[in-house]
Amino acid sequence: MKLTTGNLITGKKQMSRESGEQRLPAKSLRTGLAAVDAVVSPWNSPKDRSKEREIKREAVLKVSAQLFNEFGYHATSLAMIADRLQVTKPTLYYYIQNKEEILFECHRVGVELLREAVAGVSVGQASAAQRLRATMLAYASVVMDDFCRCLIRVGEEPLPLANRQELGQLKLALDREFRSIVQSGLDDASFEPCDPKIAAFTLAGALNWMGRWFDASGPLSKEEVALRTTDVLLNGLLRRTKQPQEIPLPRRRKVGKSKPVGG
Questions:
Q1: Three-state secondary structure call for residue 22
Q2: CA 252 → CA 247, 248, 249, 255, 260, distances in Å?
Q3: For FRET with 125, which of 2, 95, 158, 210 sits at 20 to 30 Å CA-CA?
Q4: What confidence category does residue 247 fall into, taking pLDDT thresholds of 50, 70 and 90?
Q5: Looking at the DSSP assignment, which residues form a beta bridge with residue 83?
Q6: SS3 category, 15
Q7: What DSSP line would sit under 198-211, residue for residue?
Q8: What would the CATH number be for the domain defined by 99-231?
């Protein structure tokens, strides 16, 4: 088979007068060459690279939170984080700037997880009591996560003031949600009279502390611990009766002249 200039230009099928062979059109020739010369790029697309970087950054934060919980913030070094991830220390700087940024991001993720859990509770619960119970269970189920445990165990003290203020703003939504539910229960008389602010702080504080004392190797699962803790907080410890018993107050002694002995 012979290729002529005319074939390359016109792309028409022609028969060679010399050999009688059919000649290939130029378009077919270019397609064949492209198939032979095509090289698959070893680099991922920009979209895939961005997704891969985000996955690796999340791994850096997850491992960091675990190490902060295990050894404490100050005792954990970037070298320890890199070692657990099986990468070099300079590799970490492609994903984070410094250890302070890691701690802030761990806290931010922890707060966001709690907010999402609380926001996922349906506002259409039959009563304020049911809504409060569902919210507490959702909150408790997340507070034992690595990021939330880091938020509770490490605290915000190592962070700059600007970071602490930003986290404080994120936490406001959680506080408002608990106060709103308590106020709803006061309005429909399903809750005992109380200060909504104090009640919200008490409930959130007790649930937060689970992130400090919960032991995954213990006999109870996270779900069982969350359920039992919620029951104690909602029902209390004192046995209730139909008619609350009044505790008598001690009588005050009258102040007067003392009688003489034998008088």
A1: strand
A2: 15, 12, 9, 9, 21
A3: 210
A4: very low
A5: none
A6: strand
A7: HHHHHHHHHHHHHH
A8: 1.10.357.10
Of 37, 42, 40, 7, nearest in space to 21 by CA: 7
Q: Are 23 and 4 in contact (CB under 8 A)?
A: yes
Count CA atoms within 13 Å of residue 44 on its CB side: 8
Using one digit for the tens of pLDDT, what is the confidence trace for 161-211? 999 999 999 999 889 989 999 999 999 888 989 999 999 999 999 999 998
Q: Residues 158, 74: contact at Cβ < 8 Å?
A: yes
- The residue that leads in pLDDT, 36 or 227, is 227
Neighbouring-strand partners of residue 194: none
Q: What is the pTM of this model?
A: 0.70
43 contact partners, CB below 8 Å, separation of at least 6: 49
> What CA–CA distance (Å, rounded) separates 170 from 52?
28
* Those residues with Cβ within 8 angstroms of residue 5's Cβ, 6 or more apart along the chain or in another chain: none
What is the domain partition of the chain in residue ranges? Answer: 99-231
Query: Which residues, at least 6 apart from 184, have a Cβ–Cβ distance to it below 8 Å?
Result: 128, 131
Q: Is 154 in contact with 68 (CB distance < 8 Å)?
A: yes
